[in-house]
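HUMAN: Mind making up another protein with tokenized structure?

ASSISTANT:
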Amino acid sequence: LYGVPTGLVISDVGKNTPAEEAGLKKGDVLVSFDDNKVTSMEKLRELLTYYSGGETVEVKIAVADNGEYVEKTLEITLGYKSDYTQD
């Protein structure tokens, strides 16, 4: 899409998840995760293999604001995979 920063567009944020608690919203663009550029879900999954639940990392997101994207930095404490596994 024209004007959308390079990154991973967030299509959904689960309720009561670390992402929601950190302030991520549907439509935000995840630009970087702990100073590593994020360009796809595969890249994010790859990065997450190096982290454990309970660790706090810095993420940069781009948020739409009056037709422009504004970059914000958030801290997110990672959850434990077992907390979000669905049967």
User: Anything to note?
Assistant: The longest strand covers residues 56-65. Helices lie at 18-22, 41-48, 81-84. The mean pLDDT is 89. DSSP finds three helices and five strands in the chain.
